[in-house]
Write a structure and sequence with these properties.
The structure is a single chain. By secondary structure, the protein is of the alpha+beta class. The protein has two domains: 293 residues, Rossmann fold (3-Layer(aba) Sandwich); 118 residues, no CATH class. Helix content is 30%, strand content 27%. It contains twelve helices and 18 strands. The longest helix has 19 residues. It is globular, with a radius of gyration of 24 Å.
């Protein structure tokens, strides 16, 4: 489980922000996942982040993406290669200061807290702590000025040797995990295998298409959801084709270079014959001349809403199967508010015993908690402070009655909680 995420000095985020799935200020047992851990026996199934445009909602999720992506990819960094982190630039101090990231995870009933700080050239600090039965143990600490300090146990020598292989722009966690050091490998694998993102930075459908093709129960559940929300789709079919069998290679590589970059296109050229393309077709039934017929339409022939729903709901089902954490930016894109409501209800239903879902949304009908059934501690807001940086806070931070007569949606638009855009419409009003 994801327990907590912290970030400081990243894009619109200047001061430290904390996003917690363990806030649990509501006494209700609704919308919770049991963990088996004595310190955190339950965590939230989902968190919704809302607020005005340009307040930093997406940047909170992008910070989480950057941390996970850098952990997985930094091993490819060449010595001296720049790190593409972006600090808060609207301040002369922070634009040259370190960006900081930290995540607390619950893995096998042990709490792990891992974090690092860096700039565009190197890692300045990195650390990993474990906590079990109330005892906190530093697995390692790395400091640019003080050096590397591993836990003094039977693995101390091994950790020191592994750190010697760690360049200034690489994370020790990733390097040591690559050499199969047990504890760091556990953290690395969890982040690699359990976290998934639906956003402008990560839109690949390959894993979802593989799941649809290989898991009949998964496909059946996804098709059932499509029927529930009136998409009149009877089935899904995945077919594959080796890229080597595609005739117009020149045009294909031009497209790959345009969408994924020259490096990706060159890599595919070197191992072209073994690469596989996935195709998704959707089954429709219709009546012609009093006869029932069927036709498969490619996903490209369907509406954007159909494709978006399959992507989001399919990835949520996958996260439930995988006991994972899924991060979704702008959940409502191309979806009717009733579909967003359906997805929210499914996430927080008894069908989800394993997955955590964190999403941003402007779908304000979810603030009607009598309908959405969201807890106060599941609703978070972002707003822009006077210095143009992002502030993040929860509805649970306000002293509100937890009763069904409280109209959270109305109170939000009345300005009770902030996180509203200021709109100057004087020039639009007729005199």
């Amino acid at each position: 489980m994801l327990l907590e995420f912290r970030v400081k000095n990243f894009k619109s985020i200047k001061d430290e922000l904390v996003l917690s799935t363990t806030l649990l200020k509501d006494k209700s047992k609704d919308n919770l996942i049991s963990t088996g851990n004595k310190i955190y026996p339950e965590v939230l199934k989902s968190i919704m982040i809302t607020g005005p445009n340009a307040s930093g909602k997406s940047n909170v999720l992008e910070a989480m993406y950057f941390m996970c992506y850098y952990i997985i990819t930094n091993l490819d960094n060449k010595p001296g290669e720049k790190i593409s982190v972006q600090p808060f630039k609207l301040d002369d101090v922070t634009k040259t200061s370190l960006s900081e990231f930290e995540m607390s995870l619950l893995i096998d009933e042990v709490i792990y807290t891992y974090g690092f700080s860096l700039n565009n050239t190197e890692i300045f600090e990195e650390y990993l702590y474990s906590e079990n039965l109330g005892k906190r143990i530093p697995i390692f600490k790395r400091d640019k000025n003080k050096g590397f300090m591993p836990l003094k146990d039977e693995h101390e020598k091994e950790q020191l040797e592994l750190f010697k292989r760690t360049d200034d722009n690489k994370l020790y966690l990733s390097v040591s995990a690559n050499w199969k050091f047990d504890i760091t490998n556990k953290i690395y694998k969890y982040i690699d295998e359990k976290f998934s993102f639906i956003n402008k930075w990560q839109e690949s459908n390959v894993n979802l298409f593989k799941k649809i093709k290989e898991d009949e129960k998964f496909r059946f559940t996804l098709v059932g959801a499509l029927k529930d929300v009136d998409f009149v789709i009877k089935d899904l079919k995945i077919s594959t084709k080796k890229l080597g069998e595609i005739n117009d290679r020149k045009r294909l590589f031009e497209f790959i270079e345009f969408t994924e970059g020259k490096e990706k296109a060159e890599k595919l050229k070197n191992d072209f014959e073994n690469e596989v393309a996935y195709k998704l077709d959707l089954k429709h039934e219709y009546i012609s001349n009093d006869h029932s017929k069927e036709e498969y339409l490619n996903i490209t022939e369907e509406s954007q809403g159909t494709g978006r729903f399959i992507k989001i709901f399919g990835e949520i089902l996958n996260a439930i199967d995988n006991k994972g954490v899924i991060i979704i930016d702008e959940l409502e894109i191309n979806l009717h508010p009733n579909l967003v409501k359906y997805i929210n209800e499914y996430i927080n239903s008894s069908k989800n015993k394993n997955a955590q879902v964190i999403f941003t949304s402007h779908c304000y009908n979810l603030l009607d908690i009598n309908e959405s059934k969201l807890r106060h501690d599941q609703i978070w807001f972002t707003q822009r402070k006077d210095d143009q940086s992002t502030e993040l806070f929860s509805l649970a931070d306000f002293s509100e009655r937890k009763d069904s007569n409280l109209n959270i949606l109305k109170r939000y638009f009345d300005g009770r909680y902030g996180a509203l855009p200021f709109i100057d419409n004087k020039e639009l009003i007729d005199e």
